[in-house]
């Protein structure tokens, strides 16, 4: 029998992450290491352990290979499955955008050890594509240092509300982000307030309040180099993700 690890029901956003780990491994230490790694990635309450211990054959470096796969790249995969069966690795599921699909594929490929084969089937979530099309590289603007929307930001949110209403009750995560200028906790508070302001505006346009969750992540997830004015401007943003 081969080593087999299956991680299913992976969801993109940590607020709603649920991971079921199943399969067969040779000993309790291997199982415990896998579960501990998953709990670090997703949170202890989000991981269901259905891994069994039994007599299995493993290719060289199997344990290390699994640990390398359970990195940031896999967290971007939603509603899917990671399967490691012997030296065959497959990943399928949804990602937020074409850019995330390319980056996730790159990270997973880089994690592969010699002798292991990777197959990916990653698709961009349709609802997510609609949200991304609304933003289209635009930034929802606020007054400097405040959570007050500017008219240009309201105009984008008018379009966003219309799209969300077409998604038939889909759960949407709204996250606020900042650059790294100033104190981290102040930036987190500002990003939270801005995400809340976006939610309030969307609700005012008819979006169901229960379908929108908000989070403020401050400077912790930059998408560009904070060393330049252009990079800092890109990092000051609001993101929308279809969560379910």
The CATH class of the largest domain turns out to be Alpha Beta
Contiguous uncertain segments of 5+ residues: 8-16
Tell me the major beta sheet: 6 strands, mixed
Secondary-structure-based class equals alpha/beta
Based on CA atoms alone, the radius of gyration comes out at: 20 Å
- Order of strands across the widest beta sheet? 3-2-1-4-5-6
- Give the averaged pLDDT, no decimals: 87
User: Strand portion, in percent?
Assistant: 25-35%
Query: If classified by CATH, what would the architecture of the largest domain be?
Result: 3-Layer(aba) Sandwich
Question: Please, how many helices?
Answer: 8
Approximately how much helix is present in the residues? 25-40%
How many β-strands, per DSSP? 9
Characterise the protein shown here.
The chain is an alpha/beta fold and 244 residues long. The protein has 2 domains: 4-124, hypothetical protein tt1634 (3-Layer(aba) Sandwich), CATH 3.40.1520; 127-242, OmpA-like domain (60s Ribosomal Protein L30, Chain: A), CATH 3.30.1330. The chain is built from 8 helices and 9 strands. The chain has helices at residues 28-42, 62-69, 72-75, 98-110, 126-135, 151-166, 184-204, 229-235, and strands spanning 4-10, 19-25, 47-53, 78-85, 88-95, 117-124, 172-177, 212-216, 237-242. The protein has a 6-stranded mixed β-sheet with strand order 3-2-1-4-5-6. Strand 4 (78-85) and strand 5 (88-95) form a beta hairpin. Helix 5 packs antiparallel against helix 6 (151-166). It is elongated and about 65 Å long. The protein starts with a strand and ends with a strand. It is found in: Cell outer membrane. Residues 129-244 form the OmpA-like domain. This is OmpA family protein. Its main location: membrane. Keywords: Cell outer membrane, Membrane, Signal.
